[in-house]
Amino acid sequence: IDTVLPTRVHRLRSRASVTMAMPSVAWLLVALLLALLVSQNGELDMSQMSCSSGTLQQLYDVVALLARNFLGLDSFASCSEEVLSDIQERCGLAAPAGAAVLELGFGTGRLAELLFRGAAAEATGAAAAAAGMARYDGVELSEGMLNTTVHRLATLGAGAFRRTGFHHSDRPTDFVRESEALRQYSHIVALFVVDALPAPEIHLLLQALHVRAKAGGRLCVAVLADVPERLSVRLYKTLWRAVPIALGGRRPIALQDFLDPQLWTQVTAWVDERSWLPVEVFVLERSGEEDTSSGDGPSGQPDRARRSAVLERWAVHVLASVVPDLGAAAQDVREQAVASIDSLPLGVLKDILNVWLTALPDEGLLGLAQEGIEAMSKEDILEQQEEMLSAMPTAQLKQEVIAWVKDLDSQSLEEWIVPHVDLDGLNLEELRSHIDSSFSSAAEFVSGDAELMAQVLRKQEGLRWMQSREKILELEDWIEKEVLLPPSEMSREELEQSVLEDVERLSREELQHELIGDFENRTEEDLRALLRQDLQALWREDLERRARAAVASAATAAPLRGPAREVAGRLLGAEDVQLLASLASGASPSAPRREEYMEEEEGAAQDSATGPRVARPRREAARVHGEL
Predict the structure, then answer these.
(1) End-to-end CA distance of the chain
(2) Is residue 344 within 8 Å of 562, Cβ to Cβ?
């Protein structure tokens, strides 16, 4: 033993040394291989690589679920608060009151919340109620992210949703280019979105955003910076090639390679290296002039032919009130035009407003739209509200219901929990179905009490074989006495909590049905007040459409005279004033003959009292049309 044992121990020690050395060599080889890959990937151009949108959509749905329920809303934030604050400041969104903002890939609503809170903080006193951005629209690939954002912004109150639009699309670039729900914006933001798109789609997106930006509008884009000398960038590229979906599909790109100077002018750009991955941010300004051919916006002017035709009709009544001197000052002619408004018939007033409506200020459009609301019937209002609710995302619809529930009184909450049902009017099968539904609610209520749960299930099973109406009604009494707490014994907080739990289980159709039911129970004046409140959140284009509809449906001239005076007093150009003076004095070769026009307009002047004018004979209409 003394001679053999030392030899064996020596052999074991030798083998142990070799065995211990093998992992060290293996790790060394792995490290060398990783270093080789990192060095090769450092200069790799990843702009042509990308993940499929379907895969990214599934990933971000899961991320939204984790962020909302487990890890916190900002646990997956792409940049720090300092970087985000810097982006806001340089993009002109640190004080966003009055801005119209479009955000692509809004995620969990982090920037949206900052924008709304920042805009509201700018106003004080009486202006605080109306403070905020003019509009915020967001486009998101993930429906889970959209729902999370809506829940996050619910803390700002229901008023915030009157100025927002959340849009979910499987093809965001196509949505931005084609959707009629989007308008033009003073600010467009795309933070850590572009670096997840395929290269061809980046070009298409930048073109689509150019159309959506107002003249001088700004686009703020943040991407992962392609800085090859940074070790973290090399490691990130290596990991991305192995598991791109685990990194959210985003990869470092050189965004400047995609910028078209004919579309965008670079205002500023910088690389922020405060985080482990450098971030590159571009602030761009829309190049080119705004398209005003359609006359959109306060500065839009109608085309010459339409102006001339309306001015000819107008000139007859200027002539009837006081004949202007062709050489008179423009201000004198304008005052005479204003004075003529009181004598203009309904038809001419409508023509004037239809031509110069796009030049009216927001206050004038708002006044016309409010007049249109006053003329609407309750059925028209309900139809408009139903269209509005149909366009809302489900999460936003749910928040509207929650806000409505919180305003209900205790009696209404009790009726929601235990709606009145005329049991005597139900046949046996309908009664059995009603009690079975009560048992299902009771089973959910006592799920934590095994003994009571067993009793509920046993009685529910026995319900199926009962043929006696009295026995079935006894089960209803048992549920109310033994299982459910009567609403009359619940506090206000308990009633509200019970109803809100019920709201969480409602389908989209049920949510919409509840809101429509609430609208139907309101008075016509309450509904009009709601529409007037909604006018404050409309885009100018939508406000113009409402105002134009109000002009078309006006049955009397009185509500149109105020906006028409605005046109005569402020919005007629120097060329319009000169042409009006020429036509009214008869100096223009195309000046109308008063005796041929006055008879036609006399019938139109009675519209305010007798309704639509009667059609002229065909020969007379043709003669007047030819003169025009």
Answers:
(1) 130
(2) no
